[in-house]
Every structure is written in C-alpha cells, then in structure tokens.
Amino acid sequence: MVVLSKIYTRTGDKGETALGNGSRVAKHALRVTAYGTVDETNATVGLARLHAEGDLAEALKRIQNDLFDLGADLCLPDQDKDGELPYTPLRMIAGQVDRLESEIDAMNARLTPLRSFILPGGTPLAAHLHLCRTVSRRAERLAVELAEGEAVNPEAVKYLNRLSDWFFVAGRIANDEGKGDVLWVPGLTR
C-alpha cells in the first residue's frame, strides 16, 4: 500500500529525481520523460472520462489503472542501485495487451470501414479520445527510443502501440459509431 503523508520532499530541487530502484537521474532523462508522458496520457484519459458513459467509461477507467501499472514498469530499471531488486516488480503483461486487442476488435465490428482519413473531432468525447491517441503515440515513441539504449519490457511498448489504436477506434464509436466522423478532404482549401 502507498502512503503519501508529505507531498514535497525537496529532493528534486537540483533537477534530479529517483527511479523506482532508488537510483537518481536527471529529471529530463529519457526514462523519466517516457513515464512522465504516460502520466500525461493518463491525465488526458481523465478528461475523456468526463464525457464517457457506460462500457466506454468503464474501459477508460481500466486503462487509467493500466497506465499507472505502465508508469511503474517504466520507472523501474531491471535492477536496483545495488544490482538486484529485493521484490518482484510490477510489469505489464501480455494479457493487458490482449484485452485491448479484444476491445478494439469488438468496437471495430460495429463500424463501417473507413474510406478516408478522419480529422480529430466530432463529439467532445471523440475529440478528447483523439487527444489521448496523440499523447499515447508520443509516449510510445519515447518508450521505443528508451528501449534502444536501455532494457524496457516489450509488453510496455506493445501496450502503448495498441492503446493508441484503441483510442482511435473508441473515438469513432464516440462519433455515433463512425456516422459523425469528420472526414479529411485532401486539398480542400487550395
């Protein structure tokens, strides 16, 4: 259980922060930027939830919890500062990715195929889901970049990849199951 009795610690006043293993890194370190962007994604999901109801609201709540798991995964390198972790770390698992895929498939089955790219927008919920999509894509790019130089759980990267797809399809669902999608018209203002 987490107990937060004091919010500020002053330990980051010189531009460093602690990772989950106790090691200290610059606040602009790629690992910190990656899990910080996952946190930003989570905040955008919170905004989307203000407009969601029923099954979609429940799915977004599950995703917010997953994003905390994902942040915990990314903030913890494979070892602690002394070489080994004294506990089993929380890591993303294939089942979380599989659940997103199942939900994407179920939502997509309700939609007609796209014949054009769509513009972010439509209903307030759809617009927020498109914002979630773009922020989660940025988190994915950062996690992929981090994985080029450090150990990153592959399921974390897969989750982020599926998540942005989930937000795209959910945005279409929020636009009257695609009937309210705003279609891109190439060269419209030429």
From TrEMBL:
Enzyme class name: transferase
Nucleus is among the record's keywords: no
Keywords, in A-Z order: ATP-binding, Cobalamin biosynthesis, Cytoplasm, Nucleotide-binding, Transferase
GO biological processes: cobalamin biosynthetic process
Catalytic activity: 2 cob(II)yrinate a,c diamide + reduced [electron-transfer flavoprotein] + 2 ATP = 2 adenosylcob(III)yrinate a,c-diamide + 2 triphosphate + oxidized [electron-transfer flavoprotein] + 3 H(+); 2 cob(II)alamin + reduced [electron-transfer flavoprotein] + 2 ATP = 2 adenosylcob(III)alamin + 2 triphosphate + oxidized [electron-transfer flavoprotein] + 3 H(+)
Subcellular location: Cytoplasm
Pfam families from the UniProt entry: Cob_adeno_trans (PF01923)
Signal peptide: none
Domain Cobalamin adenosyltransferase-like residues, every copy: 7-173
Record GO cellular component, one term: cytoplasm
NCBIfam families reported for this sequence: PduO_Nterm (TIGR00636)
Official protein name in the record: Corrinoid adenosyltransferase
Name of the coding gene: pduO
